[in-house]
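Retro notes - structure team

What went well: the batch runner handled both jobs without manual restarts.
What didn't: labels got mixed up in the shared folder, which is why I'm recording both outputs here explicitly, each with its sequence directly above its tokens.

Job 1
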Amino acid sequence: MDRKLITGIAIGVALASAGAVFAGRSVFAPPEFADVVRVGPEIVREPVAREECRDVATTRVVPRDDNLNNGTIIGALVGGALGNQVGGGSGRDAATVAGVVAGGYVGRELDREHRKTRVVASTRRECRTVTEDVERQVGWRVTYRVDGQRRDVVMDRDPGDQVRIAEVSALPDAPARR
């Protein structure tokens, strides 16, 4: 082959390579952008616990705490009044005293039978923990095509029609959807 031809080819390749390097591109460099095929929100479901409370009306029976002698006093008065109606003179006095004693005893026993307990109404607050699944968006699932292959990645924004390959290669591949 002619020496001038070989020298010309060598100079041409060198100039083309130098021009490509000067322009910032390598002859063998991979593409800088990839076409976006699909973009959609990346949603995750997470359990969230919350407290749910309600008021419940209750009644309970409690012992009486009052120490009143109303039954004894009323029984003694009624017994004394009835005893005073019987007899005359000193018999009337004895019947009055007997009526006071008997009426006081009967009144005290009736008071004990009917006033042993009392019913107390109240409201009680019942709470429980409820867990619910809540959906939230964590980013954008981007499917792009590079070198004839489809790849998925989750990004924090919608990249548009093209994505810079250097940007997505720094991100982990998105897990497959279930």
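Job 2
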Amino acid sequence: MIRKPYLVGTSKSLRFESTTWEKKLWKHLRAGRFNGFKFKRQVVIESFIVDFCCNALKLIIELDGFHHKYLISDKVRDKLLKDLGYEVLRFWDSEVDNNISLVLEKIEKVIKKRVFDLSLTLPTLSALRASPPKGGEKY
């Protein structure tokens, strides 16, 4: 995988400038809270920065605002990421706002499918899950 060094700084600044919707979803995904899988945010993959990524499952979650409605480049980007073995889930910001439970359900279904598709065995699966925070650690 080729990382573009200049994107690392951009991804860091994007973490500090998260949208309201990214913050809302991040509360559920961070620190292995979601089914124990470790997600990272604003991750550099090749020449892209993705909103959320679980490397163990090769799962990417993107949140789209209104401006994405007209972007053909998203389809091209998703195809390139798929060619790298990733599955890309896209949600509208309004979905996160109006029905976060449904968004989380959809993510959970895809996680179960990815676990099956990647033929992860139980021991492998436990090793891939994020370790729970130690007592007293803050999220």
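One thing worth noting from job 2: Strands lie at 40-45, 48-54, 59-64, 87-92.
We'll revisit the folder naming next retro.
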